[in-house]
Amino acid sequence: MTSTVVRASGLTKRYGSFAAVDHVDFALEEHRIYGLLGRNGAGKTTLMQLLTGQLFPNEGELEVFGRTPAEHADVLRRLCFIAESQRYPEDFTPKHVFTSAPWFFENWDAEFAERLIADFRLPVKRRIKKLSRGQLSAVGVIVGLASRAPLTFFDEPYLGLDAVARHIFYDRLLEDYAEHPRTIVLSTHLIDEVANLLEHVILIDQGRILLDRDAEEVRGQATTIAGARSVVEEFVQGRPIIGREGLGGLASVTIDGRLEREERIRAAELGLELAPVSLQQLIVHLTGADLAGATEKEVAA
Amino acid sequence: MDESRPIFLQIAEQIENDIIDGVLAEGSQIPSTNEFAAYYRINPATALKGVTRLVDDGIVVKRRGIGMFVTEGARDRLVERRRADFSAAYLRPLIIEAEKLGITIDDLAALIRAERIAS
């Protein structure tokens, strides 16, 4: 069985009267890939900073590898946090970063790092402040992968990385995770790109957790029904509606919940079109302005 | 991968298709879950779930330390199951669409025969 790596209850971080993380409860299990998703300012980075001991919570309980992370060296050395815009000392080159990495990460694999450097075509002797935005992101991605930390966070790791480089990242992540299982938290806006890599999804909005479910449960959990307005409205009656669009006499309504085969056949007989809702579309619906206050319970009801 | 359905089901179906088409012969070894994960760029736990489903159905058998193999008689059982689903999955939508367009059952039968000859 898997063991729990992170356990949070009632975890809260306030900046003045603003709660960036607002009484959240969740757990992260060992050897899984998590997606921490949400809009800008939802609280994703603050949450990861709490988990990595960079911030102190105002309220609530937090255990990482069984202890509070802040100021516990034995916890911190098992963590790796790749920030969106990591800063490095003046005059550092990528070579300096990779040479000093083994001091902080006991599982550091220098050979793997070399392979990644070649994959990303990273100029290791150029000063970091002269690197392009994408090359700077590649430095972070390489550290995150080659460190093989038992709990690794990637916070929007690929600003400026092109599509080819992002796919190298996904491929190497999956390969290495298969050989060296560990807990990985990916926080990103590019939901469609990473959706299939995730085992579990945590959606955060306005400092609260909106959704905390297995990715496979989320997939296909919502359906969009389109057709003549009156027919659509009758079909969706009594179902939890999470999105609604219309054009003249046509309506397109997204419901939360799977349709059984019989219902699909009935929809076809009524002349309705059914369309799948991707994880990204679902999240747009769930975190859209009109439903910003909905909780997981309301959505699932 | 199709967004509307669980990926593990799609992985299981893909392997079933390969067994029905003879790409994976009875008694032969199927790729490992990590190979499936890398090929389809999916989480290995998802790939494992798909393969486990086939193990539970007796289509694939796990030999500890070696890998997973297609069982004897797997193809016949899959074909039988697909035949049972054929009506609901293919015929009913076809008939509904035909009725919508005013195509009679006899016309439909003629169309199927004509299509068969053309292909």
TrEMBL record, chain A:
Is this entry keyworded DNA damage? no
- The protein in question is named ABC transporter ATP-binding protein
Alphabetical keyword list: ATP-binding, Nucleotide-binding, Transport
Domain of life the protein comes from: Bacteria
Q: Does the keyword section mention Isomerase?
A: no
An MF annotation (GO) of this entry:
ATP binding
Which parts of the chain are coiled coil? none
Q: Do you know which PROSITE patterns this protein is assigned to? A: ABC_TRANSPORTER_2
TrEMBL record, chain B:
Keyword set includes Secreted: no
Q: Which UniProt keywords apply?
A: DNA-binding, Transcription, Transcription regulation
- InterPro entries for the chain: Tscrpt_reg_HTH_GntR (IPR000524), WH-like_DNA-bd_sf (IPR036388), WH_DNA-bd_sf (IPR036390)
List the Gene3D superfamilies hit by this protein, alphabetically. Answer: Winged helix-like DNA-binding domain superfamily/Winged helix DNA-binding domain
Q: Is the Coiled coil keyword given for this protein?
A: no
Domain named HTH gntR-type is located at 5-73
Tell me which Pfam families the record gives. Answer: GntR
* Membrane-spanning ranges: none
The entry's protein name is GntR family transcriptional regulator
Originating species: Agromyces soli
